[in-house]
Amino acid sequence: MKLRQWTTNSTILNDQARNDKTNAEPTVKILGLVWNAKADTLSISLANLSEEIKNVKKVTKRSALSLSSKLFDPLGFVEPITVKTKIMMQQLWKQNVKWDEILPKNVKESWIKWLNELSHLELVEIVIPRPYFKDNVNDIQFHVFCDSSKLAYGTVAYLRANTHQGTKSTYVTSKSKVAPVKHQAIPRLELLAAHLGAELANYLSTTVLAKSKPPRCILWSDSKIALSWISSTKHLHLQFVRHRVQLIRDLTLQSTWRYCPTASNPADHITRGIEAKTFILKSQDWRQGPPWLTKPEGEWPSVSSDEIEKTAETEESPTKTSTTTNLNHQTFFFFSIGAVEFYFFIWKKI
Fold first, then answer.
1. What whole-number distance in Å separates Cα of residue 33 and Cα of residue 235?
2. Are residue 219 and residue 93 in the same domain, yes or no?
3. Fewer Cβ within 10 Å of end Cβ, the chain: N or C?
4. Residues 51-81: tens digit of each pLDDT
């Protein structure tokens, strides 16, 4: 088979291809992204999405899902923007909206607002450097941040390394999920975020740089209760908590988990979603992580294990609540003391 065209980020090989008249354009599409071989960068294309928006005649659940899937972002680089579509789609499922039914007014307004926000992304090209670092590096570390809200939870990973120009950090990938339809308390959602972060950390450790020395991996959460569950040596009574904690411990070491303040947790952007204009302004922070990440380890956020346990005990202090519900000939009681929940029935005589 005769090779028709090809391109590379190597100047020498491109000159050879030009002499053989087989050189391609420096900007080509690859794996759904746009690769600029000369600058060696990846960018997200919004051409298909812009064309689709122009052809939309009515906003239905079908067209909304189609539009959201047009923004192809396998690395999750614009996850703070796309997570809003996941949240809105869940709202449509909760309201039992049919596929070709016009969206309810409140959801429709949110969708139109989100589509209008994308015009800001068209004006500013979203560029991602293809190599993590251009220089030789050492002391490589993965830093995975986790966070959650009532709407969604997510995780984002960064690579930190020492170069001859100093310590640098760079974006790797991110993931997000909408919160379960069944209501869960925030500490439980934070635990789900921690589990998602543990899965991402395990995946990156076995794929990226898998052939070299395994990099050190540090996981961050701003939930002291979730961290106390992960590091607890006591028996956890709640099955939901006990099961997730075991999954996290199977994937990560308890000593790799640390606390970071919410204000410096980049995963916080994923939990609610942000506007495209705001994302552009904060893109540098999103791309490199919190400012302290490139500083010496002694300047990282630090909280003692005793303080985490103390905070957890304070937030789980006995605050009693109870509810009663009549179901036919039985009475259902719900009683909670802190994070411990009790359910029981009392049957009535017929």
1. 48
2. no
3. N
4. 777 778 888 999 999 888 888 888 999 999 9
